[in-house]
Amino acid sequence: MVSIPLEERMRTVRFKVDDQPHIVVNAAVCAKCSVRACVYVCPANLFVPLDDGGILFNYEECFECGTCYIACNQEGAIQWSYPRGGYGVTFREA
Amino acid sequence: MALLSKEASLALVQQVHRLIGMKNGVAPHDAPRPRPQRNAPRPGAERFDVIVVGAGPAGSAAALVAARAGLKVLLLERGEYPGAKNVSGAAFYGSAILHDLIPNWWEQAPVERYLTRRVLAFMTAETSVAIDFRTTRFAEPPYNGFSILRPKFDRWFADQAVAAGAFLLNAAVVDEVLWEDDQVVGVRVRRDEGDLRADVVIACDGANSFLAKNAGLQREFHAHEMSLGVKEVLALDEAIIRERFHLHDNDGLAIEYIGAITEEVSGGGFLYTNRDSLSLGVIGQISSLAEHKRRPYELLETFKRHPAVAPLVRGGRVREYSAHIIPEAGWNMLPKLYTGGMLVAGDAAALCFVAGLYLEGINYAIQSGIAAGETAVAAHQERDFSARSLARYVERLRARHVITDFANYRHAPALVNSPRLQNLYPEIIAAGAEQVFRVNGGPKRKLLPIALEALRRAQVSPVHVLQDALQAGRSFGW
Questions:
Q1: pLDDT digits (tens, 9 = 90+) for B401-442
Q2: Number of alpha carbons in the 13 Å side-chain half-sphere of residue A92
Q3: For residues B227 and B285, what is the distance between their CA atoms, to the nearest angstrom?
Q4: Which one of A39, A80, B93, B102 is separated from B251 by 20 to 30 angstroms, measured CA to CA?
């Protein structure tokens, strides 16, 4: 199918998940943020707003694109580095 | 307005270059952030002549040039293999450049199709007006451009550097450079015993350019300077591709879409034909995505459903979804390109040329990689790795027209991302074309009243149009 939901689309991508997260989100900073750009811009929809005002974040299916930390206007909310060598996303066609 | 003579415009450009400090090879940018701690290499670190960080097109070109000259070169790649982390459209327009480096490279490289047709389409929600360029002259070696798939192409290109004598180390991520006094003398790979020494470090670590930032050569980016591209590779039968896109054999086309394709978000769309798949995606300015609270993959769906796009992708099966950022601000975000013992090339140097008519990067990556490799070779010949010696990298970039292209088009990115150009003018062009082509028994109207009425309806003053036309002229015309 040409049109598919994001979950199905994400299944076309190979990830070798590291046990150490390469992105760390500071929940205390996020709780005070009203903009929440990360929720919208992430191409893998890894930032999910919670009812209590926090952000649920999942690093496992990350494209390592960097969009979230560039969009984030809250100082220190997103600590971003690349995963360890060999881990993370592996594109075959891209 | 009278056009400037060629000499006068050249003098003007030179004057501007002097004013904005290009003589020093330093583009204007914000104050660099506080310099991170400068670590020295641990004793006993292995030593190379050149370490290239990142095995994309810039890194492999640099490693190839340096290895051919007989230097001991280490090419570091953080992915499982070169290209594993890399995403482009991908249309590669630098065939002749690579041909100089590897004659008839297309005969051995994994290319998809040589591009003979380029389409620029202005879109509204229901309409598209396109410029369709096609020439058999791009079907002759060395060709003008190819559609490629980066994981395959980059892997092949890195293999060429290895064949020339470079060492390739995969699964090696580099977080920082190592210093002695004011000289970069190596890198720290994130693993045990990870310190490696080199006379020259060439940072080709991509658009996030962590290494350039770590060395204090690049600042943090603003969300309006970066775009996010999301993309799909859609499997489609080879015969269908040929029929659907009016292709003869292994020729192909590249379509770029501007206008409402990304709704109110600043950006555009693209579609390239591969051998048995299509690469298509949307690009959105990060600040604009955030401002309008639009999710990139939803824009991708909207794009695929557009009445002008849907018939082109019909029957395609998603083979892979991917995403990557694109440095779009051109001249205004170039880093300082060198320091003692270090050069920056490719996307890491923000050498992406995104300006409406143009959507290029791999060519500039290879050009800058070659220039960096040559600079490292010359530095080794003179045993001088100081900033003064490596400054000649900027001369080489200028000779290869990299720096000059970015300087000459420095006004283009802001113009291209302006709301009028993004949405309003495509709307006016489409509405105007519809009026011209619609036959309903009313009187035929000439073009000027149609244009003026469209502007009035859009509440745009002709003064703004003139200003934009002047700005467009300054960006693209002269």
A1: 999 999 999 999 888 888 888 888 888 888 889 888 999 998
A2: 7
A3: 4
A4: B102
Going from the C-alpha of B177 to that of each of B193, B319, B334, the distances in angstroms are 15, 38, 19
ipTM of this complex > 0.90?
A: yes
Max Cα distance, chain A (Å): 41
User: Per the CB < 8 Å rule, is B149 touching A86?
Assistant: no
Q: What is the mean pLDDT of chain B?
A: 91
Distances (CA, A) of B71 to A83, B66, B68, B376: 30, 6, 7, 9
Residue B322's DSSP bridge partners are B231
Question: Would the pLDDT of B124 be above 80?
Answer: yes
Task: Provide the 10 A C-beta neighbour count for residue B273.
Answer: 28
Query: Rounded to an integer, what distance in angstroms lies between the CA atom of residue B418 and that of residue B469?
Result: 13
Alpha helices, H only, B330-440: 362-382, 387-390, 392-399, 402-408, 412-416, 419, 425-437
Q: Does the pLDDT value for residue B143 go beyond 70?
A: yes
Chain A residues near residue B277 by CB distance under 8 angstroms? 93
Give residue-wise pLDDT tens across range B149-185.
999 999 999 999 999 999 999 999 999 999 999 999 9
pLDDT over 70, % of chain B: 92
- Judged by CB atoms closer than 8 Å, whether chains meet at A86 and B80 is answered as yes
Among candidates A2, A85, A88 on the partner chain, residue whose Cβ is nearest the Cβ of B190: A85
Q: How far apart are CA B34 and CA B207, in angstroms?
A: 21
Q: Are B275 and B113 in contact (CB under 8 A)?
A: yes
Q: Which residues of B105-132 are buried (b: 16+ CB within 10 A; e: fewer)?
A: bbeebbbbbbbbbbbbbbbbeebbbeee
Distance separating alpha carbons of residues B219 and B344, to the nearest angstrom: 13
Chain centroid to Cα B6, Å, comes to 28
Contact between B59 and B368 under an 8 Å Cβ cutoff? The reply is no
The pLDDT of residue B454:
83
The distance of Cα A13 from the centroid of its chain, to the nearest Å, equals: 14
Are A67 and B313 an interchain contact pair (Cβ–Cβ within 8 Å)?
A: no
* HSE toward the beta carbon, residue A33, CA cutoff 13 A: 23
CA distance B256 to B303: 12
Say if B296 is an interface residue toward chain A (CB within 8 Å): yes
B87 touching A (Cβ < 8 Å): yes
- pLDDT tens for A35-47 read 899 999 999 999 9
Q: Does A45 touch chain B (CB under 8 A)?
A: yes
